[in-house]
Design goal:
Layout (H helix, E strand, L loop, with lengths): L5 E6 L6 H7 L2 E3 L2 E3 L5 E3 L6 H7 L6 E3 L3 H13 L4 E6 L7 H9 L7 E5 L4 H17 L3 H13 L1 E7 L3 H5 L5 H7 L4 E7 L5 E8 L1 H16 L5 E7 L7 H11 L3 E8 L2 H7 L3 E8 L5
Length: about 290
């Protein structure tokens, strides 16, 4: 427990590394993965990304956010464990109702101050915001300053990703028909990012998978030039893990001011929407004044 007794809570869609969560007692609320036969699993708890991938051949499941009861139980447990306040950090509210639900539950908690942060991002980059929250709390940043500071961190964090097939994102309602049609013509691979509100949008287009990966590296390098030092991340799905070394090598060659490159495996709940063939990159300003 940190000295401020501020619990840091997130959802599984942020792909915050499990080892980091264990070391810093970050509480993770799993999103749910639901199959047509009525079975429901908790992402990362009783179903893995590899298991979801194996079952995609027969069914693409649905996902659902943590229930209000689940969020309340997590907060009550944190209080029972000795925490006196909490910060909840979620994936983009534009992509999931988890943030809005967390706000609702937080408003019902008595004598337990809570702030809810919208990363306006997804996956590994949202997880990088979680890591910054932990660093701030452990460094003694006052609770009253965390909201504005973490909003600033979110604004200086960017995600880029590409998939070999847009079918999963389209069928899951995560992208519109315009983006889907572009990606279905002449092997065009849109590089997707989150806009200022957290919605998916096209950052750039490339023809073919290999060019899409190189384009992502260029986009990260362009963003990185805005900062003195940067933290980078690479995310791969269960079938693209063999790309980790090559992508990290390309990023380090293209971004001279890199401080670190993290590797994040895609969570089971996000894989439902991206499909099994996905690669992503993240960039974040490493210059933070605590």
């Amino acid at each position: 427990m940190n000295n401020q007794r501020i619990a840091v809570i997130t959802d599984s869609g942020t792909d915050t590394p499990s080892e980091f969560c264990r070391e810093h007692d970050v509480r993770v609320m799993p999103l749910h993965i639901n199959y047509a036969d009525g079975t429901t699993f908790q992402s990362g708890v009783d179903i893995t990304a590899d298991e979801v991938t194996r079952r995609l051949a027969t069914e693409v499941p649905k996902t659902s956010l943590p229930s209000p009861h689940q969020i309340q139980t997590t907060l009550e447990q944190a209080r029972a464990d000795g925490y006196q306040k909490a910060v909840i950090i979620t994936i983009a509210s534009a992509l999931s109702a988890t943030n809005q639900t967390a706000h609702m539950v937080a408003g019902q908690m008595e004598d337990f101050p809570i702030i809810v942060v919208d990363t306006r991002s997804i996956g590994m980059v949202a997880g990088m915001v979680v890591e910054r929250a932990v660093q701030m709390v452990e460094a003694g940043v006052p609770f009253e300053q965390l909201q504005s500071r973490l909003d600033s961190v979110a604004q200086q964090s960017n995600v880029f990703f590409a998939v070999k097939s847009l079918d999963f994102l389209y069928k899951g309602g995560r992208i519109n028909g315009h983006i889907y049609r572009i990606g279905s013509v002449l092997n065009i691979k849109p590089i997707l990012t989150c806009d200022d509100e957290g919605y998916y949008t096209i950052a750039k287009k490339a023809r073919g998978w290999d060019r899409a990966l190189d384009t992502m590296v260029s986009l990260v390098a362009e963003k990185a030039r805005q900062y003195k030092r940067t933290r980078l991340a690479v995310c791969c799905s269960s079938t693209t893990r063999d790309l980790y070394d090559a992508l990290e090598q390309k990023l380090r060659a293209a971004v001279p001011n890199v401080e670190s490159v993290q590797r994040h495996d895609l969570s089971a709940d996000l894989l439902v929407h991206t499909g099994p063939e996905m690669a992503g990159m993240g960039v974040q300003n490493a210059e933070l004044d605590f």
